[in-house]
Amino acid sequence: MKQWIYLDGEFVTKENAKVSVYDHGFLYGDGIFEGIRIYGGNIFKCKEHLERLYDSAKSIMLNIPLPIEEMQDVLLETIRKNELQDGYIRLIVSRGPGNLGLDPLRCPKASVIIIVEQLAIYSEEAYRNGLRTVSVAERRNIPDALNPKIKSLNYLNNILVKIKANLADVGEAIMLNAQGYVTEGSGDNIFLVKKGVVYTPPCYLGALEGITRGAIMELCQKLGLTLKEEPFSLHDIYVADEVFFTGTAAEVIAVREVDGRIIGSGQAGPVTLSLLENFRKIVTEDGVKVYD
Ligand code: PMP
């Protein structure tokens, strides 16, 4: 079956989905995006993802050429056109084509692209055993330079971290902020569990306000787990009972090793596994149904 991509009001095949070399998303990373999951025909946390997209747009003064309700309709249409039940949605809004100068005023119209695809996910073994990870020297972008709450197309900070993870032959890496507090992974939020309490860093330290992070915080409350949004350091990670990452692609995945220190039992711990199990129960419910 053909893969259809939504490109500025039209559906084109993957082969024909081309953007201008003058697009400021390409030239400067000037744009924003969302990564969204669809589970059994349900767009998980659709509203939250769209709201984050429009908030990012507002923050960088990017005028999305369709209102949020229409964006949701287009999203649904793209999924239906691709007959997708389970997979990943990449929604991109770039500043659009301009000239070679930086000035966004030279970009008359933002470009909207929606790609829906099957998703290659971690193996069930990885969810049970956990990931090895390292901390890296590269600090998270400071919020008063480029706020990590903006899900911008400028992912070079994250890519540099991914390169370090690759060099260390691990699946994900941990970024600190300029003060040495833990912020997040290259593409995931981070949590730790100590003596039954779940901790995650506040996003003002320099992290994306992950939708999965939000869902896990809600689940903690539902399951009666104490959750604290508090700054913590690498030391706290090393001595934690459990550490896990959350993200649209990764869901809830345990960390078994950080910088050579074995975390807890060296496998996914009971809190992590319980959160994963409960998370997987809500992903087909909490969102917008595509085929009703
Ligand atoms: N942090 C970063 C830097 C990310 O790219 C992502 C993935 N979008 C996350 C955290 C997790 O966010 P979400 O749960 O919304 O996918």
UniProtKB/TrEMBL annotation:
Gene3D superfamilies the UniProt entry points to: 3.30.470.10, D-amino Acid Aminotransferase, subunit A, domain 2
Statement: the UniProt record of this protein carries the keyword Protein biosynthesis: no
Pfam families in UniProt: Aminotran_4
Keywords: Amino-acid biosynthesis, Aminotransferase, Branched-chain amino acid biosynthesis, Pyridoxal phosphate, Transferase
Pathway annotation from the record: Amino-acid biosynthesis; L-leucine biosynthesis; L-leucine from 3-methyl-2-oxobutanoate: step 4/4; Amino-acid biosynthesis; L-isoleucine biosynthesis; L-isoleucine from 2-oxobutanoate: step 4/4; Amino-acid biosynthesis; L-valine biosynthesis; L-valine from pyruvate: step 4/4
EC number: 2.6.1.42
Molecular-function annotations in GO: branched-chain-amino-acid transaminase activity
Record CDD domains: D-AAT_like (cd01558)
Keyword Amino-acid biosynthesis among record annotations: yes
Catalytic activity, reaction form: L-valine + 2-oxoglutarate = 3-methyl-2-oxobutanoate + L-glutamate; L-isoleucine + 2-oxoglutarate = (S)-3-methyl-2-oxopentanoate + L-glutamate; L-leucine + 2-oxoglutarate = 4-methyl-2-oxopentanoate + L-glutamate
Cofactor list: pyridoxal 5'-phosphate
Similarity comment: Belongs to the class-IV pyridoxal-phosphate-dependent aminotransferase family.
Function (record text): Acts on leucine, isoleucine and valine.
Annotated protein name in UniProt: Branched-chain-amino-acid aminotransferase
Originating organism: Paenibacillus profundus
